């Protein structure tokens, strides 16, 4: 059990490459305020100053900063506020600018909503987001245990809707995993954490850098020659979704047995040389097929978002709701 817990806490995120050779082929323009000397950006009508917010508690810590639950003093509305230290290193800075750029572009009920960005030169950067009172799917798994097929069909459908939106905007998330999917009491699921995402400039542009959490990376990200015919990055999000849903059903990271150490080399071997993980026979045929369609090692055989949205595991649930 301790091993399982340790595995769930895997921090196998690979840093963004530092070398200029590895920089995105289409570097994101910095958000205007981060280039200019202006002090504060407001995207919300409601909250126009950081001092209007009262910190209630810490919701969590990430690589880039701390997330607080905050209350708007005048309206009592509750938000989540991510605060990133202004002195952060170049990698973190690049991740946070990327996250801000994508949050500004996105507008979907399946993507975490940004209500404002506050920054001053050489001071902390704060991102005001909608508050998700259920935390992440990772914490939900730890507190409530594994999820039923029906719940997973519902979750998979919402994540697919979110990915459908992102992919239509030419955004590849590149770090789909339980810890990056936020949930609320209504069981609404929203995709968060765009620090390693990429905006594709051309539809078939390769997306080949080692960023994200390697445990959830698809085979073609390690070995594009074998598994990535026409590799364009979008299919990698589907692999990560398949692993995520499987983990939420099994209650542990699916690719390793409890005896294996979850280091980079072991994971890479399991992903590239092992059989793709599958469900036990007790799972329904539709569910088995859905996981199988997501976890095709050859990225050209893996189903796309729109195909998966019509898969019986998803559409059956949609009809009954
Ligand atoms: N909008 C939100 N609503 C509720 N809780 C949130 C929200 N955003 C983040 N959190 C909580 O704060 C934690 C830290 O989030 P954060 O995005 O900083 O870190 P992370 O997901 O580990 O990403 P990274 O390390 O890449 O920055 C999350 O794991 C989650 O528990």
Task: Walk me through this protein's architecture.
This protein has 321 residues and is an alpha+beta fold. The protein contains twelve helices and twelve strands. The chain has helices spanning 2-8, 32-35, 90-105, 137-144, 149-168, 219-222, 224-227, 234-250, 264-273, 285-294, 305-309, 312-320, and strands at residues 13-14, 40-41, 53-61, 65-72, 78-84, 114-119, 125-130, 171-172, 181-183, 189-191, 198-199, 212-213. The strands form four sheets. A six-stranded antiparallel sheet has the order 2-6-7-5-4-3, with helices on one face. Strands 1-12 form a two-stranded antiparallel ribbon. Helix 5 runs antiparallel to helix 8 (234-250), helix 5 packs across helix 12 and helix 8 (234-250) runs antiparallel to helix 10 (285-294). The longest helix is centred in the middle third of the chain and has 20 residues, at 149-168. It is globular, with a radius of gyration of 19 Å. The two termini are 36 Å apart. The relative contact order is 0.13. Residues 1-11 and 14-43 have low confidence and may be disordered. Bound molecules: adenosine-5'-triphosphate. One of its GO terms (molecular function) is protein serine/threonine kinase activity. It comes from Protea cynaroides. Belongs to the protein kinase superfamily. STE Ser/Thr protein kinase family. MAP kinase kinase subfamily. This is mitogen-activated protein kinase kinase. Its EC number is 2.7.12.2.
């Amino acid at each position: 059990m301790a091993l399982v817990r340790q595995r769930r806490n895997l921090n196998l995120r690979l840093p963004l490459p530092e070398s200029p050779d590895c920089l995105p082929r289409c570097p994101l323009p910095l958000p205007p305020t981060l280039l200019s000397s202006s002090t504060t950006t407001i995207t919300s009508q409601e909250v126009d100053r950081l001092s209007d917010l009262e910190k209630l508690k810490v919701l969590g810590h990430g690589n880039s900063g701390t997330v607080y639950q905050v209350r708007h003093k005048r309206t009592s509305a509750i938000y989540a506020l991510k605060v990133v230290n202004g002195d952060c290193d170049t990698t973190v800075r690049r991740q946070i600018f990327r996250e801000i750029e994508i949050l500004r572009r996105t507008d979907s009920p399946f993507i975490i909503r940004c209500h404002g960005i506050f920054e001053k030169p050489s001071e902390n950067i704060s991102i005001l987001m909608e508050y998700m009172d259920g935390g992440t799917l990772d914490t939900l798994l730890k507190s409530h245990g594994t999820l039923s097929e029906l719940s997973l069909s519902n979750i998979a459908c919402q994540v697919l809707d979110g990915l459908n939106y992102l992919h239509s905007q030419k955004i590849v998330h590149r770090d789909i995993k339980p810890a990056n999917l936020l949930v609320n009491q209504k069981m609404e699921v929203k995709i968060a954490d765009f620090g390693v995402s990429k905006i594709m400039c051309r539809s078939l542009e390769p997306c080949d850098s080692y960023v994200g959490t390697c445990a959830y990376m698809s085979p073609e990200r390690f070995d594009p020659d074998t598994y990535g015919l026409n590799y364009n990055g979008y299919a990698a999000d589907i692999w990560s979704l398949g692993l995520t849903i499987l983990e939420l059903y099994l209650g542990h990271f699916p690719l390793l047995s409890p005896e294996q150490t979850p280091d980079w080399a072991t994971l890479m071997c399991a992903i590239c040389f092992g059989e793709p993980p599958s469900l036990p026979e007790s799972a329904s045929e539709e569910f088995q097929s859905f996981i199988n369609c997501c976890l095709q090692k050859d990225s050209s055989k893996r189903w796309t978002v729109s195909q998966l949205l019509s898969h019986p595991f998803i559409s059956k649930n949609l009809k009954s709701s």
